[in-house]
Amino acid sequence: MSLPDLLALLTTSINNLTAQYASAGHALPSLDTPYDSKSPAETFRLGNPAVVDATKEIIAAASQIIVAVRDPVVGLFLSAHSFNVPACLRVASELNVPEILREAREQGASAEKIASYSGVDAGLLERVLRLLATHHIFREIGPGIFTNNRVSSAMDKGKSVKDLLERPGERFSEPQSGRAAHVEFLADECFRSASVLADTMRDPKASTPLLQAFNQPPTANLFSFLETSPARLGRFSIAMDVTMTTNQLADGYPWVNLATGDKKLVVDVGAGMGGYIMGVARQLGSSDKIEFVIQDREKTVVKARKNWEEHLPEVVTKGLVKFEPQDFFNAQPSRSAPVSVFVLRHILHNWPNAKATQILRRLRDAASAETQLLIIDRVVRPASLVESAHPEIVESIPGAKLAPAPAPLLPNWGVAGQMMYHYDLTMHNLLGATERTVDGFVALLRGAGWELVRIHRDPHASQSSNLVARPLL
């Protein structure tokens, strides 16, 4: 590892980033100012490939430099201490600190003032917020006085403090509140489950970490556990729906081309609130060439219908979307017309291979020779330079092979691509499941009668990819 090479890459990437913003007439968003997802600078950041690439290189190089120069023992201990960050994030979100500080404006608020809304210990809250501020989440602008910054304000649930306190059951009712719901879910169910990972690994008879952490019976699972608490279930639903409420990888599947000729049938299996398909319907505009079916548990389907009636009522009125209670482990309903596309968005990563195979076989049984399967999931990259144990297979699938990060960075972009590895272990801790590599998807699909034919990989190297499969004949 060469520090001068890392520094050169870091310097070049910073220069590229600043030049991109300058050429577009935008200022680089300041860490000290609140986050505004609708600002031109933020929109530019997400939509410009050169900015995305430069950002990824800066994160990867800077983090690798830190690891290279820091005392390894200190680095090890800091990593072991990092559990305090999600614990403190949960405190901040549940006590509505971002909203209190938003209303306090630039002058901020003291820990005593913030604590007065909930009655918690002000001294302890000050220490919680100081740790977060040290991690660039909130700012401490005077001893014990805090204000929001770009990171902390991203947790703002978009409601007044008065509303949050008077109607705590409606904390996540605003569209932007999904980010806070996601943070709380990660810092609560996911964090507590991770704490017993080692215990369950050493005990071959143990249930999943989630069931052990929350003292649930071995016959339970994440979904049955959530259904015992309306508050947890509601938070989870909002947290999951916010991950992709639009067709994020619009060019990952040719929906526009599909909406030609005869009417097509698209079935979104385990669709939740139907946010992804709603994004597709919006993309197609007034097209009536595709009929959508939203499948999920009965309670979820009822909520999905209400969601569509509120946000896209014209599609419901035209009869272009139907809502179908369905357990995806059971046989698909018989239909008068073949299904053109089955969609599995963030479904397979919820299940170990045996269960995932069962889901896929049910769809294969209901597929025609022309049916396609669209899988929206993360594709995990090994940290090694060689991405597959079967390179000849990967070479034959468009989009399956990704170029490694530039040396001397880790081939998988290191910390800049770490999100997928966090989610991989989270899937295990919650469900005994997994995020899969390309090799994992190829083997899983073949075992269930499908053939992987194309992958549209996410350029951010952390979000979902679109995988397209067809029936093995």
From TrEMBL:
Gene Ontology process terms (BP): methylation
Keywords noted in UniProt: Methyltransferase, S-adenosyl-L-methionine, Transferase
Residue span, O-methyltransferase dimerisation domain: 80-154
Query: Pfam families in the record, alphabetically?
Result: Dimerisation, Methyltransf_2
Annotated O-methyltransferase C-terminal domain residues: 197-381
Q: Which InterPro entries match?
A: COMT-like, COMT_C, COMT_dimerisation, SAM-dependent_MTases_sf, WH-like_DNA-bd_sf, WH_DNA-bd_sf
Q: Does the keyword Transferase apply?
A: yes
One GO molecular-function annotation for this sequence? protein dimerization activity
SUPFAM superfamilies reported for this sequence? S-adenosyl-L-methionine-dependent methyltransferases, Winged helix' DNA-binding domain
Q: Which domain of life is it from?
A: Eukaryota
Name of this chain's protein: Methyltransf-2 domain-containing protein
